[in-house]
Amino acid sequence: MQKQTKQILVVIALLLVFGAAYGGMRIYNDRQEKQAGEEAEAAKTYIAGIKAEEIITFSYQSGEETLHFAKEEGTWISQEDEGLQLNQTAVADMADTIAELEAEDTVEEAKELSEYGFDTPANVITVTTAEGSSTLTIGMQNSITSQYYLTKSGEDTLYLVSGSFPSAFGKTLEDLEDTTEDTEEAVSETEE
């Protein structure tokens, strides 16, 4: 009986040791993952250097016209047609896209910007915060990487950004109109 008691105590002690070792390894691994995530985030280069909620106004080119949007009392409005009901989510997504724009690479010692399509830019985006305004100019697409060249006003750096970035700013005012009211009216008319 004493032998069985000793064996049970040894097994319990071993379980406690292994449990503590497992817990210690979990804590260590979690800390390592958190540190790696923080280092990866710190290594990212956000071009605009702002948060989406700081954006007061922004504009971009859509075809032959430039569309301007302003945030008034938490609501985005079109400065071209203040009566137009905008899809707030769609406009806020564009502001998020500006704030979260990340440089995927940079071009060292870019001398002649016209070689990168800046003599006829694909788009020009201007963003304003309480701190001031900056302009993001999108050049041509790199045919090998599918990334776009981009410059920011006041900086000499030539950035390469995701190939999907310019498409976020290809919407017309009609594309950004809030049509949920029209859809609700059409549904209620068909139900009658």
Describe the structure.
- The protein has an eight-stranded antiparallel sheet with strand order 3-2-1-5-6-7-8-4, with helices on one face.
- The protein has three helices and eight strands; from the N terminus they run H-E-E-E-H-E-E-E-E-E-H.
- It is elongated.
- Mean pLDDT is 85; it is low at 183-190.
- It is an alpha+beta fold and 192 residues long.
- Strand 1 and strand 2 form a beta hairpin.
Q: Report the β-strand fraction as a percent range.
A: 15-25%
Class derived from helix and strand content: alpha+beta
Head-to-tail CA distance between termini: 85 Å
Overall pLDDT score: 85
In the predicted model, the low-confidence regions spanning at least 5 consecutive residues are: 183-190
Strands, count: 8
| Number of helical segments with 4 or more residues | 3
Which sheet architecture does the biggest sheet show?
8 strands, antiparallel
What gyration radius follows from the Cα positions, in whole Å?
Answer: 27 Å
**Helix share bin:** 25-40%
What are the secondary-structure elements, in order, as H or E? HEEEHEEEEEH
Task: Name the strands of the widest sheet in spatial order.
Answer: 3-2-1-5-6-7-8-4
Instruction: Using the alpha-carbon principal axes, give the shape.
Output: elongated
How would you summarize this macromolecular structure in one to three sentences?
With 192 residues, the chain is an alpha+beta fold.
